[in-house]
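Can anyone check this?
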Amino acid sequence: MGSRPVRVLLAKPGLDGHDRGVLVVAAALRDAGFEVIYTGLRQTPEMIADAAEEEDVDVVGLSVLSGAHGTLVPRVLEALRSRGLKEVRVIVGGIIPDEDRAMLLRSGIAGVFGPGASTLEIVAFFSGLDNGGSNEGSSGP
């Protein structure tokens, strides 16, 4: 990811209207030296992929609390791939049942964070991505 700060796009796909957690993560990443772009609430997968392309981001972080991760995350991945953004890593945070974590990681998600994940843990994971670290992490209860 080179000499410039890692650029992170944080997004809330779908109809979920609660963004307190993603705003806390955004502040923690900014404080740790990442460039953070937050797209706001109710983003479509296409809007997220368009923003990722326009902003030339390294990582996309999706916050999903609605239970729609099984539908929304694959659509975001496909939208990124269709724009040639195969190198962009995708992280998912929110209410993700344990049985869905492995499926998300197999689909190409770099990490999954659930309730209780600390901002220090999330920043450390993102920092590992910057240093070429493992992209198979999973966190949270």
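Reply from J.R.: I decoded it. Residues 11 and 48 are 7 Å apart (CA to CA).
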